[in-house]
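Good morning N.,

You mentioned wanting to compare the apo and holo forms, so I went ahead and generated the holo version with NAP. This is what I fed in:
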Amino acid sequence: MAKVLIFGAGYLGNQFHERLLGSVLSSVDIVDRDAVLTEIERVKPDAVLNTAGKTGRPNVDWCEDHPHETFRSNTIGALVLAEVCAHAGIHLTHLASGCIFYGPSPDPVGWREDDFANPSATYSRSKYATDLALSLFPNVAIARLRMPIDSKPGQRNLITKLSHYPKVIDVENSVTVVDDLVDAIRQIIEKRATGIFHVVNEGTMKHRDLMALYTEIVDPAHTCEWIENDELVGQGLATRGRSNCILQNTRLKEIGIEMRPIDVALRDCMVQYADYLNNEKNNLET
Ligand SMILES: NC(=O)c1ccc[n+]([C@@H]2O[C@H](COP(=O)([O-])OP(=O)(O)OC[C@H]3O[C@@H](n4cnc5c(N)ncnc54)[C@H](OP(=O)(O)O)[C@@H]3O)[C@@H](O)[C@H]2O)c1
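and this is what came out, ligand included:
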């Protein structure tokens, strides 16, 4: 396995660090060119993975009030990394987002990698601006993921998020299971693939499907109220409407990378999620 230097010590940075053997995790400011260069000279990686960026706390609405910080990290920082990696002859994989697409796609099957996006929120604009620039770099893979679903509970995990909301919107999306994401990124790095990839599982998932599986496998007593998508902003639950979209992952398949069908991957993930919670409970009791 290539030695991967991961920038960004947040949720996904740590997931990759745990799962990519021999990887090194760095929290240096990616806008600081000298600091980035020093890290690359120290670690001497075969490849770089950018997971750094402003995603907003408690959620992405934070970016609406902090556009400078958002563009500084998500756009300028990513460009600094791409330029330094290009100069050093190192392959860069950049974590991008599918939430640059809003609503129905021109092709009824789903948004394609080369479709022009229609981002509305500040976060989405900062991510798409980066994609437009980085797609011109010959040493960069842009990996767009959607709504990570993980077997470990956590605030960024869609299972944990939806199961904690009293009101949930009833929408259909492409989504990404984290185990499959890590595996796909590992292969992208090994193949030194470049260009844009939609790293989403096969098929689509409704929030209702996820919650039905949660009730079946994790907590039979769980309930929530279902609301329409436009009620999210109308009821003051979010500042800006969220992106809901379906993505094609054609380019991934073209280079021989298969993502598991979402119904298979989701069930597997939910079983592991339940096991994790049960183990935690047992550990607390002993
Ligand atoms: N999680 C998702 O739902 C999702 C979906 C699609 C795409 N993505 C993309 O995947 C990447 C990682 O997401 P995540 O969920 O792991 O987010 P996260 O938990 O917020 O992690 C991002 C990390 O990057 C750090 N950071 C921000 N600006 C930086 C800078 N200039 N230099 C170095 N580090 C910086 C953040 O630190 P501070 O907190 O101190 O700012 C944080 O530790 C992001 O680019 C995101 O756009 C995520």
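The two ends are 39 Å apart (CA to CA).

Happy to go through it together on a call whenever suits you.

Best,
F.
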